[in-house]
Structure to design on (215 residues):
């Protein structure tokens, strides 16, 4: 009986070490980081990951969704609580971009560049609906251009995702300059007609599927 308890305790410790290692490695390298790098940091075999979590997706779902949801919910809550709708919108976009910089796992979640998991899909859907409310509030105020759609934020975050990955070593604040240009272009004052319509939700799903196959 004592031996069985020892085995279970060892198994629990391995799971805890794997969860900690996965959070660290995914945060440093993104959600496509090699599983053997996670196993090595946890001091276990790669087979232990598959035994305990079944797949990369299972490990991601055990580590990332709650972390991502808490931070995105906080960003949205602060934006909606801001008295000035434009400031709330701008602060939200800036904060989400900061999250992309701070954690490459979140960078992949926010830019939708990750293995498909049910829990992450729920987080992304929830975040997009929050962003829609924040944008509509600024549009109703007249400060955000009327032809902006919540789907347009994907372009902002995709662009920032690439900047984060390619400039974080040499110029870690370069994304702020690009974001300032973007936010100025989203103000209603001086807005000019756009050449094409925003993506529809259906088109966004098609794009996401294509990114998943190419990734």
């Amino acid at each position: 009986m004592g031996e069985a308890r020892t085995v279970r305790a060892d198994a629990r410790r391995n799971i805890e070490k794997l969860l900690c290692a996965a959070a660290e490695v995914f945060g440093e390298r993104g959600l496509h980081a090699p599983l053997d790098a996670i196993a090595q940091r946890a001091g276990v075999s790669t087979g232990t990951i598959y035994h305990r979590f079944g797949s990369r997706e299972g490990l991601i779902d055990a580590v990332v969704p709650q972390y991502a949801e808490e931070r995105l919910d906080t960003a949205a809550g602060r934006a909606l609580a801001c008295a000035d709708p434009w400031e709330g919108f701008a602060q939200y976009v800036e904060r989400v971009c900061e999250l992309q910089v701070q954690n490459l796992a979140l960078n992949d979640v926010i830019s939708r560049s990750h293995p498909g998991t049910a829990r992450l899909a729920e987080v992304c859907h929830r975040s997009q609906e929050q962003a829609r409310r924040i944008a509509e509030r600024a549009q109703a105020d007249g400060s955000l251009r009327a032809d902006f759609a919540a789907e347009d934020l994907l372009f902002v975050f995709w662009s920032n995702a690439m900047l984060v990955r390619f400039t974080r070593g040499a110029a870690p604040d370069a994304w702020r300059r690009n974001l300032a240009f973007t936010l100025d272009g989203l103000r209603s004052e001086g807005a000019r007609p756009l050449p094409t319509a925003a993506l529809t939700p259906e088109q966004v799903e098609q794009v996401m599927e294509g990114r998943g196959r190419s990734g």
Remarks:
- The CA atoms of residues 39 and 45 lie 6 Å apart.
